[in-house]
Write a structure and sequence with these properties.
Chain lengths: 350, 189
């Protein structure tokens, strides 16, 4: 269990994390790495307190500041930081300096076997495959039996194959050890899939925390939604609420929509509305009058993706449709976009 | 006229000693300034670099004023030479240490290594080309300064100085060449 309170380097955060993966998610510069570095002891915050399993690692008030070597935190740096002048074997040996020789070699061998590195063991990091390098990095972080694993996700530069290895390693760490893991996540998918808990960070503050499913489904506000990469955010005003029929009417800038009943909201409330691009139905406009919840929109850009086409309309509406549906109407400019009432979400708790 | 190798040998010995002294002072200082921030650290850096911008005559004048008139002893010669070569060595060493990616040093600390172990097992092996270049440049400087001074002083008795300067220049050039090569390879690596 790690408890962290930090107010320094433009940060003001307080959280705790126990076993399992806790993801720190946010844009670059949000403070993810600063938090990890402060816990590892690489930087000294001006104020705050860090407690790991009842041991105070850092406390500005009482002047406690353990050096990194006595904090027993495994750290996986963003660029992996395997020592380039040592073989993988020697890299794994490095953290075991205080142990008897026989014990050191037993542990290294065990780790090399566990991470399928026996063949590459005598080679240096530059001479092995990226997947082996990645496994060696994690093996080295775990071999000293840390009490906490800090991971600055090496997501940039990971190709698809390597990403699969990475996810597999994270899963193994999560399922086979009871270590608390703090993961500075750069990829929402990894975050969603692997983490039991997440902290959404923005400019050194925690915007929202909780299980990833809840955070992605119910962002607390428009800032949080933008950070999570949610498209189709519209300011709206609630103009009618009918609990009997379980409906509401929402007025957007240029059109009105029927939505589900919004418990806890009042008529006249201004809210942010969001819709997943994949839940909008886009069809070519044949000149007929739009029906309820349909909006006529002009197509500005179509971006082809591997499995779908993303249609960007005037007014900031983004829809995704299957490629085969888009193909026959490729040159069409006028479209009808339908907002199904059940797909409308209002951001934040009332 | 046969070449007299003794000035070369004397020069190498004196410059070697001076470089060694300078290394002993420059490396800890460079490490400290590369890794720690404290009030006055830039002032310390500037002070250590001062002899670099002082003409030798001015430096020697101040040293003589400070220490009183000295007989020409090899101790004094080596000490002056070390002070004179220190700034170059220190600046290059500091640049070399700062060029090491801190994530490697932090990784070592996080894996349980203290500063001493981190320095010897991680920083030095990663910075050795830059350090070697710094030491050789420092040596070349000490060597040229010392040898030229000594030779010119004896020029009247030993004939034209230019002949004796040849091996001196060759050794200095070799040191600079090896140093430069080492530095360039580090950049390419």
């Amino acid at each position: 269990m790690i408890q962290v309170r930090l107010a320094a380097h433009g940060m003001d955060v307080e959280f705790q994390a126990s076993s399992g993966i806790t993801a720190l998610f946010g844009a670059a510069g949000a403070g993810k790495t600063v938090i990890l570095d402060a816990i590892a002891g690489f930087i000294t915050p001006a104020s705050g307190r860090i407690i790991l399993d009842d041991e105070i690692l850092f406390d500005a008030a009482s002047g406690v500041n353990l050096p990194p070597r006595r904090r027993h935190c495994g750290y996986i740096a963003r660029h992996w930081a395997l020592f380039p002048h040592m073989s993988l074997h020697d890299n794994l040996l490095f953290p075991l300096a205080g142990l008897p020789r026989r014990e050191r070699h037993r542990r290294v061998k065990e780790m090399l076997e566990r991470f399928a590195l026996l063949e590459a063991a005598q080679r240096r990091p530059h001479d092995v495959l990226p997947a082996e390098r990645l496994r060696a990095t994690v093996a080295r972080a775990l071999i000293g039996e840390p009490r906490l694993l800090l991971v600055d996700e090496p997501a940039d530069g990971l190709d698809i194959a390597l990403r699969a290895v990475w996810v597999q390693i994270l899963r193994m760490v999560r399922d086979e050890t009871s270590l608390p893991v703090l993961l500075a996540a750069r990829d929402p998918e990894t975050c969603f899939e692997m983490a039991g808990n997440m902290l959404l960070l923005d400019a050194g503050r925690i915007l929202q925390s909780g299980p990833p499913r809840r955070v992605f489904d119910q962002p607390v506000g428009v800032e949080a939604a933008r950070l999570l990469g949610i498209r189709n955010l519209f300011p709206a005003e609630i103009v009618a609420l009918d609990p009997g029929r379980n409906t509401s009417r929402l007025r957007l800038e240029t059109f009105d929509l029927n939505g589900p009943y919004l418990p806890g909201r009042l008529r006249g409330d201004r809210v942010w509305l969001c819709v997943e691009p994949g839940q909008l139905h886009a069809t070519p406009h044949d000149g007929s009058k739009p029906s309820a919840n349909q909006v006529a929109a002009r197509l500005e850009r179509a971006a082809e993706m591997p499995r779908a086409v993303r249609l960007e309309f005037a007014g900031g509406i983004v829809a995704e449709i299957a490629r085969r549906e888009f193909e026959p109407d490729r040159d069409n400019e006028e479209w009808l976009v339908e907002f199904p009432p059940h797909a409308l979400r209002v951001l934040g708790c009332p | 006229m046969p070449l007299d190798w003794s000035p070369l040998w004397v020069g190498v010995r004196y410059a070697g000693l001076a470089t060694l002294l300078a290394i002993l002072a420059a490396v800890p200082l460079a490490w400290f300034l590369a890794h720690r921030r404290f009030p006055g650290c830039e002032l310390l850096d500037a002070t250590a670099s001062l002899p670099l911008v002082l003409p030798p005559a001015v430096l020697v004048y101040y040293l003589l004023t400070l220490l009183g008139p000295l007989d020409f002893s090899w101790h004094a010669a080596v000490a002056v030479s070390a002070i004179y070569t220190l700034p170059l060595l220190f600046r290059m060493t500091r640049a070399g240490l700062e060029a090491v990616d801190h994530s490697f040093e932090n990784a070592a600390r996080g894996l349980g290594a203290g500063e001493w172990r981190t320095f010897w097992l991680v920083t030095v092996p990663l910075a050795w080309r830059a350090l070697l270049a710094a030491f050789l440049a420092g040596f070349a400087r000490a060597f040229v300064d010392f040898a030229v001074t000594a030779l010119l002083a004896n020029a009247a008795s030993t004939g034209p100085a230019v002949w004796q300067l040849l091996p001196v220049a060759a050794v200095a050039l070799a040191a600079l060449y090896i140093g430069n090569r080492a530095r360039r390879r580090r950049v390419l690596a």
